[in-house]
Design brief:
Blueprint: E1 7-13, H1 17-26, E2 37-44, H2 48-59, E3 72-74, H3 78-81, E4 88-91, H4 98-107, E5 111-115, H5 122-135, E6 139-142, H6 149-159, E7 167-175, H7 198-214, E8 225-233, E9 236-246, E10 251-258, E11 266-272, E12 275-280, E13 288-293, E14 301-304, H8 313-325, H9 335-352
Parallel strand pairs: 1-2, 1-4, 2-3, 4-5, 5-6, 7-10
Antiparallel strand pairs: 7-11, 8-9, 9-10, 11-12, 12-13, 13-14
Helix pairs in contact: 4-5, 5-9
Amino acid sequence: MANDLPTVRWGIVATGMISSWFVEDLLLPTWPGKRANHIIQSIGSSSLEKGQKFHEKYVLPHLAQNSGVDPKIYPDYASVYNDPDVDVVYIGTPHSFHKQNCIDAISAGKNVLCEKAFTLTQADAKEVTKLAKEKGVFLMEAMWTRFYPLVKELRRLLYEEKAIGRVWRTFADFGLSYDVESLPDNSRLKDLSMGAGTLLDIGIYSLTWGVLTLEENVGKGEHPKILAAQTLQSGVETISSWILNYTDTGRHGILTSTSNVRSANNFARIEGSKGVISIHGPTSSPESFTVKLHDEEGEGKLYTFDKPGRGFYWEADAVAVDLKEGRKENETINWAETERIMGIMDEIRRQGGARFPGDTF
Protein backbone atom coordinates (compact mmCIF):
# COMPACT_ATOMS: atom_id res chain seq x y z
CA MET A 1 0.00 0.00 0.00
CA ALA A 2 1.29 3.47 -0.92
CA ASN A 3 0.23 4.82 2.49
CA ASP A 4 2.52 2.32 4.24
CA LEU A 5 5.59 3.64 2.42
CA PRO A 6 7.94 6.26 3.87
CA THR A 7 7.39 9.81 2.63
CA VAL A 8 10.19 12.25 1.85
CA ARG A 9 9.75 16.01 1.39
CA TRP A 10 12.27 17.31 -1.14
CA GLY A 11 13.84 20.72 -1.53
CA ILE A 12 15.03 21.20 -5.10
CA VAL A 13 18.11 23.33 -5.66
CA ALA A 14 18.50 24.67 -9.23
CA THR A 15 15.92 24.59 -12.00
CA GLY A 16 17.89 23.27 -14.96
CA MET A 17 17.31 20.17 -17.08
CA ILE A 18 18.52 17.57 -14.59
CA SER A 19 16.27 18.97 -11.84
CA SER A 20 13.28 18.91 -14.19
CA TRP A 21 13.94 15.24 -14.98
CA PHE A 22 14.24 14.39 -11.29
CA VAL A 23 11.03 16.22 -10.35
CA GLU A 24 9.00 14.79 -13.23
CA ASP A 25 10.01 11.27 -12.24
CA LEU A 26 9.15 11.76 -8.57
CA LEU A 27 5.71 13.06 -9.53
CA LEU A 28 4.81 9.95 -11.51
CA PRO A 29 1.91 8.03 -9.88
CA THR A 30 3.96 4.83 -9.57
CA TRP A 31 6.92 2.85 -10.90
CA PRO A 32 8.24 -0.73 -10.69
CA GLY A 33 9.34 -1.64 -7.19
CA LYS A 34 8.14 1.64 -5.67
CA ARG A 35 9.40 1.89 -2.07
CA ALA A 36 8.55 5.47 -1.06
CA ASN A 37 6.31 8.47 -1.60
CA HIS A 38 7.86 11.79 -2.58
CA ILE A 39 6.69 15.37 -2.14
CA ILE A 40 8.27 18.38 -3.82
CA GLN A 41 8.22 20.71 -0.81
CA SER A 42 10.23 23.68 -2.07
CA ILE A 43 12.13 24.89 -5.12
CA GLY A 44 15.13 27.21 -5.05
CA SER A 45 16.33 28.99 -8.16
CA SER A 46 18.66 31.83 -9.11
CA SER A 47 15.59 34.01 -9.63
CA LEU A 48 11.94 33.95 -8.62
CA GLU A 49 10.90 34.06 -12.27
CA LYS A 50 12.88 30.94 -13.14
CA GLY A 51 11.50 29.15 -10.11
CA GLN A 52 7.92 30.03 -11.02
CA LYS A 53 8.38 28.87 -14.62
CA PHE A 54 9.83 25.60 -13.38
CA HIS A 55 6.90 25.16 -11.01
CA GLU A 56 4.31 25.88 -13.71
CA LYS A 57 5.88 23.49 -16.21
CA TYR A 58 7.00 20.55 -14.09
CA VAL A 59 5.04 20.60 -10.82
CA LEU A 60 1.67 22.27 -11.33
CA PRO A 61 0.35 19.74 -13.90
CA HIS A 62 1.05 16.93 -11.41
CA LEU A 63 -0.03 18.59 -8.16
CA ALA A 64 -2.37 15.70 -7.26
CA GLN A 65 0.60 13.31 -7.34
CA ASN A 66 2.46 15.76 -5.09
CA SER A 67 0.01 14.86 -2.29
CA GLY A 68 -1.71 18.15 -2.98
CA VAL A 69 1.33 20.07 -1.68
CA ASP A 70 2.06 23.20 -3.68
CA PRO A 71 5.79 23.80 -3.13
CA LYS A 72 7.24 27.08 -1.96
CA ILE A 73 9.24 28.94 -4.57
CA TYR A 74 12.40 30.69 -3.41
CA PRO A 75 14.62 33.11 -5.38
CA ASP A 76 17.74 31.60 -3.78
CA TYR A 77 19.13 28.32 -2.49
CA ALA A 78 19.66 29.30 1.15
CA SER A 79 15.91 29.45 1.77
CA VAL A 80 15.63 25.80 0.73
CA TYR A 81 18.42 24.81 3.12
CA ASN A 82 16.64 26.63 5.95
CA ASP A 83 13.11 25.45 5.18
CA PRO A 84 12.04 23.40 8.22
CA ASP A 85 9.61 21.35 6.12
CA VAL A 86 12.34 19.98 3.83
CA ASP A 87 13.70 16.51 4.68
CA VAL A 88 16.28 16.21 1.90
CA VAL A 89 17.89 18.71 -0.44
CA TYR A 90 18.41 17.60 -4.03
CA ILE A 91 21.30 19.51 -5.63
CA GLY A 92 21.02 19.77 -9.41
CA THR A 93 23.52 22.55 -10.11
CA PRO A 94 26.56 22.12 -12.41
CA HIS A 95 29.24 20.04 -10.70
CA SER A 96 31.58 22.98 -10.11
CA PHE A 97 29.03 24.31 -7.59
CA HIS A 98 28.36 21.01 -5.81
CA LYS A 99 31.00 21.40 -3.12
CA GLN A 100 29.70 24.76 -1.89
CA ASN A 101 26.05 23.79 -2.29
CA CYS A 102 26.63 20.65 -0.23
CA ILE A 103 28.56 22.55 2.44
CA ASP A 104 25.78 25.13 2.72
CA ALA A 105 23.03 22.52 2.93
CA ILE A 106 24.90 20.30 5.40
CA SER A 107 25.81 23.31 7.55
CA ALA A 108 22.09 24.04 7.78
CA GLY A 109 21.55 20.49 9.06
CA LYS A 110 19.97 19.13 5.89
CA ASN A 111 20.24 15.67 4.37
CA VAL A 112 21.60 15.85 0.83
CA LEU A 113 21.33 14.03 -2.49
CA CYS A 114 23.89 15.66 -4.81
CA GLU A 115 24.15 15.08 -8.54
CA LYS A 116 27.21 13.54 -10.11
CA ALA A 117 30.01 14.28 -10.63
CA PHE A 118 29.96 14.82 -6.88
CA THR A 119 32.66 17.51 -6.92
CA LEU A 120 35.55 18.55 -9.17
CA THR A 121 38.23 16.62 -7.25
CA GLN A 122 38.67 13.89 -4.68
CA ALA A 123 39.96 16.44 -2.15
CA ASP A 124 36.72 18.41 -2.49
CA ALA A 125 34.66 15.24 -2.07
CA LYS A 126 36.51 14.34 1.12
CA GLU A 127 35.89 17.81 2.52
CA VAL A 128 32.16 17.41 1.96
CA THR A 129 31.91 13.90 3.42
CA LYS A 130 33.94 14.97 6.45
CA LEU A 131 31.46 17.75 7.15
CA ALA A 132 28.50 15.40 6.71
CA LYS A 133 30.02 13.05 9.27
CA GLU A 134 30.59 15.92 11.71
CA LYS A 135 27.02 17.19 11.30
CA GLY A 136 25.45 13.73 11.41
CA VAL A 137 23.39 14.13 8.23
CA PHE A 138 22.64 11.77 5.35
CA LEU A 139 24.64 12.38 2.17
CA MET A 140 24.63 10.54 -1.16
CA GLU A 141 25.90 11.08 -4.68
CA ALA A 142 23.06 10.88 -7.18
CA MET A 143 24.52 8.28 -9.52
CA TRP A 144 21.05 7.12 -10.53
CA THR A 145 22.21 4.37 -12.90
CA ARG A 146 23.56 2.28 -10.02
CA PHE A 147 20.02 1.86 -8.67
CA TYR A 148 18.44 0.53 -11.85
CA PRO A 149 16.89 -2.95 -11.61
CA LEU A 150 18.76 -3.65 -14.86
CA VAL A 151 22.08 -3.12 -13.08
CA LYS A 152 21.11 -5.36 -10.18
CA GLU A 153 20.04 -8.15 -12.53
CA LEU A 154 23.18 -7.73 -14.63
CA ARG A 155 25.42 -8.07 -11.58
CA ARG A 156 23.43 -11.08 -10.36
CA LEU A 157 23.99 -12.83 -13.69
CA LEU A 158 27.69 -11.93 -13.73
CA TYR A 159 28.66 -12.86 -10.19
CA GLU A 160 25.97 -15.15 -8.77
CA GLU A 161 24.94 -17.20 -11.81
CA LYS A 162 28.27 -16.57 -13.59
CA ALA A 163 26.23 -16.55 -16.79
CA ILE A 164 29.20 -15.75 -19.05
CA GLY A 165 31.81 -17.58 -16.98
CA ARG A 166 34.93 -15.76 -15.87
CA VAL A 167 34.66 -12.05 -16.62
CA TRP A 168 37.65 -10.70 -18.53
CA ARG A 169 36.91 -7.36 -20.19
CA THR A 170 34.39 -4.54 -20.31
CA PHE A 171 34.15 -1.96 -23.08
CA ALA A 172 31.96 1.07 -22.37
CA ASP A 173 31.55 4.42 -24.10
CA PHE A 174 29.55 7.61 -23.65
CA GLY A 175 29.73 9.96 -26.60
CA LEU A 176 27.83 13.12 -27.47
CA SER A 177 28.28 15.29 -30.54
CA TYR A 178 28.84 19.03 -30.19
CA ASP A 179 31.55 21.45 -31.28
CA VAL A 180 33.30 22.69 -28.13
CA GLU A 181 35.31 25.36 -29.94
CA SER A 182 32.16 27.04 -31.28
CA LEU A 183 30.58 27.39 -27.82
CA PRO A 184 30.65 30.72 -25.95
CA ASP A 185 33.42 30.98 -23.38
CA ASN A 186 30.90 31.09 -20.50
CA SER A 187 29.27 27.79 -21.49
CA ARG A 188 29.67 25.19 -18.74
CA LEU A 189 30.83 22.83 -21.49
CA LYS A 190 33.77 25.14 -22.25
CA ASP A 191 34.47 26.95 -18.98
CA LEU A 192 37.28 25.10 -17.17
CA SER A 193 36.35 26.69 -13.85
CA MET A 194 33.04 24.81 -14.17
CA GLY A 195 34.73 21.48 -14.80
CA ALA A 196 34.35 21.53 -18.59
CA GLY A 197 35.19 18.39 -20.52
CA THR A 198 33.56 15.03 -21.04
CA LEU A 199 35.13 13.09 -18.18
CA LEU A 200 33.18 14.47 -15.20
CA ASP A 201 30.07 15.15 -17.26
CA ILE A 202 29.57 11.84 -19.06
CA GLY A 203 32.78 9.82 -18.71
CA ILE A 204 31.80 9.08 -15.13
CA TYR A 205 29.12 6.78 -16.56
CA SER A 206 31.64 4.78 -18.59
CA LEU A 207 33.77 4.52 -15.46
CA THR A 208 30.75 3.39 -13.46
CA TRP A 209 30.01 0.60 -15.92
CA GLY A 210 33.62 -0.49 -15.62
CA VAL A 211 33.60 -0.88 -11.84
CA LEU A 212 30.08 -2.34 -11.74
CA THR A 213 30.91 -5.13 -14.18
CA LEU A 214 34.55 -5.88 -13.30
CA GLU A 215 34.38 -5.79 -9.50
CA GLU A 216 32.53 -8.63 -7.79
CA ASN A 217 32.33 -6.62 -4.56
CA VAL A 218 32.28 -3.05 -5.83
CA GLY A 219 34.84 -0.87 -4.07
CA LYS A 220 35.76 -3.55 -1.51
CA GLY A 221 38.32 -5.61 -3.38
CA GLU A 222 41.24 -4.78 -5.60
CA HIS A 223 41.41 -1.20 -6.83
CA PRO A 224 42.51 -0.88 -10.46
CA LYS A 225 45.63 0.71 -11.86
CA ILE A 226 44.89 3.46 -14.40
CA LEU A 227 46.36 4.09 -17.85
CA ALA A 228 44.81 7.17 -19.50
CA ALA A 229 45.04 9.53 -22.47
CA GLN A 230 43.03 12.62 -23.42
CA THR A 231 42.55 14.99 -26.35
CA LEU A 232 42.21 18.71 -25.61
CA GLN A 233 40.64 21.32 -27.88
CA SER A 234 41.11 24.95 -26.81
CA GLY A 235 42.19 23.57 -23.46
CA VAL A 236 38.98 21.57 -23.02
CA GLU A 237 39.10 17.79 -22.92
CA THR A 238 36.99 16.36 -25.74
CA ILE A 239 38.16 12.74 -25.74
CA SER A 240 39.12 10.59 -22.75
CA SER A 241 40.22 6.98 -22.98
CA TRP A 242 41.44 4.92 -20.06
CA ILE A 243 42.10 1.36 -19.00
CA LEU A 244 41.21 -0.05 -15.61
CA ASN A 245 43.83 -2.73 -14.98
CA TYR A 246 42.96 -5.25 -12.25
CA THR A 247 46.26 -7.09 -11.87
CA ASP A 248 44.98 -9.66 -9.34
CA THR A 249 42.14 -10.92 -11.56
CA GLY A 250 43.64 -9.97 -14.94
CA ARG A 251 40.52 -8.03 -15.88
CA HIS A 252 40.58 -4.89 -18.03
CA GLY A 253 38.07 -2.10 -18.50
CA ILE A 254 38.49 -0.20 -21.77
CA LEU A 255 36.45 2.95 -21.22
CA THR A 256 35.90 6.12 -23.22
CA SER A 257 34.01 9.39 -23.42
CA THR A 258 33.88 12.11 -26.06
CA SER A 259 31.99 15.17 -27.23
CA ASN A 260 33.01 14.59 -30.86
CA VAL A 261 31.08 11.41 -31.74
CA ARG A 262 27.74 10.15 -30.46
CA SER A 263 27.69 6.69 -28.85
CA ALA A 264 26.12 3.72 -30.57
CA ASN A 265 23.01 2.16 -29.01
CA ASN A 266 25.04 -0.86 -27.90
CA PHE A 267 27.26 1.25 -25.69
CA ALA A 268 28.84 -1.50 -23.58
CA ARG A 269 30.10 -5.05 -23.96
CA ILE A 270 31.18 -7.42 -21.18
CA GLU A 271 33.28 -10.37 -22.28
CA GLY A 272 33.62 -13.60 -20.35
CA SER A 273 35.04 -17.06 -20.86
CA LYS A 274 31.62 -18.47 -21.85
CA GLY A 275 29.91 -15.54 -23.55
CA VAL A 276 29.27 -11.85 -24.02
CA ILE A 277 26.73 -9.40 -22.60
CA SER A 278 25.81 -6.33 -24.68
CA ILE A 279 24.01 -3.41 -23.00
CA HIS A 280 21.58 -1.31 -25.04
CA GLY A 281 20.26 2.25 -24.76
CA PRO A 282 21.72 5.53 -23.53
CA THR A 283 24.83 4.98 -21.38
CA SER A 284 23.28 6.80 -18.42
CA SER A 285 19.84 5.24 -18.75
CA PRO A 286 20.04 1.71 -20.24
CA GLU A 287 16.98 -0.11 -21.47
CA SER A 288 18.00 -3.74 -21.98
CA PHE A 289 20.88 -6.17 -22.36
CA THR A 290 21.55 -9.34 -24.32
CA VAL A 291 23.37 -12.44 -23.06
CA LYS A 292 24.97 -14.45 -25.86
CA LEU A 293 26.94 -17.59 -25.06
CA HIS A 294 29.80 -18.61 -27.36
CA ASP A 295 28.26 -21.98 -28.22
CA GLU A 296 24.71 -20.64 -28.55
CA GLU A 297 22.81 -20.31 -31.82
CA GLY A 298 20.91 -17.12 -32.64
CA GLU A 299 21.06 -13.65 -31.13
CA GLY A 300 21.12 -14.64 -27.47
CA LYS A 301 18.67 -13.89 -24.66
CA LEU A 302 17.29 -10.35 -24.41
CA TYR A 303 16.51 -8.92 -20.95
CA THR A 304 14.17 -5.90 -20.92
CA PHE A 305 13.08 -3.73 -18.00
CA ASP A 306 10.01 -1.61 -17.44
CA LYS A 307 11.07 2.01 -16.92
CA PRO A 308 8.33 4.67 -16.96
CA GLY A 309 9.81 8.15 -17.12
CA ARG A 310 13.60 8.19 -16.87
CA GLY A 311 14.40 6.23 -13.72
CA PHE A 312 15.44 8.79 -11.10
CA TYR A 313 12.85 7.49 -8.63
CA TRP A 314 14.89 4.39 -7.76
CA GLU A 315 17.72 6.45 -6.25
CA ALA A 316 15.15 8.68 -4.51
CA ASP A 317 13.50 5.59 -3.03
CA ALA A 318 16.89 4.43 -1.76
CA VAL A 319 17.34 7.75 0.05
CA ALA A 320 13.90 7.44 1.64
CA VAL A 321 14.57 3.90 2.88
CA ASP A 322 17.96 4.89 4.30
CA LEU A 323 16.41 7.81 6.16
CA LYS A 324 13.67 5.58 7.54
CA GLU A 325 16.30 3.13 8.81
CA GLY A 326 18.44 5.90 10.28
CA ARG A 327 21.41 5.43 7.97
CA LYS A 328 23.71 8.31 6.98
CA GLU A 329 25.25 6.58 3.97
CA ASN A 330 23.88 4.38 1.20
CA GLU A 331 25.35 0.92 0.73
CA THR A 332 25.22 1.07 -3.08
CA ILE A 333 27.27 4.27 -3.31
CA ASN A 334 28.73 5.12 0.07
CA TRP A 335 31.08 8.00 0.79
CA ALA A 336 34.22 5.93 0.28
CA GLU A 337 32.99 4.84 -3.16
CA THR A 338 32.22 8.42 -4.19
CA GLU A 339 35.69 9.50 -3.02
CA ARG A 340 37.28 6.59 -4.92
CA ILE A 341 35.53 7.45 -8.18
CA MET A 342 36.62 11.08 -7.85
CA GLY A 343 40.18 9.88 -7.22
CA ILE A 344 40.16 7.75 -10.38
CA MET A 345 38.99 10.74 -12.42
CA ASP A 346 41.72 12.88 -10.82
CA GLU A 347 44.27 10.31 -12.00
CA ILE A 348 42.81 10.16 -15.52
CA ARG A 349 43.15 13.94 -15.76
CA ARG A 350 46.62 13.88 -14.23
CA GLN A 351 47.81 11.46 -16.91
CA GLY A 352 45.74 12.92 -19.74
CA GLY A 353 46.47 16.61 -19.25
CA ALA A 354 43.03 18.12 -18.57
CA ARG A 355 43.28 20.74 -15.83
CA PHE A 356 40.87 22.84 -13.80
CA PRO A 357 41.80 26.04 -11.97
CA GLY A 358 43.05 25.10 -8.52
CA ASP A 359 44.34 21.64 -9.48
CA THR A 360 47.39 20.68 -7.44
CA PHE A 361 48.61 17.68 -9.45
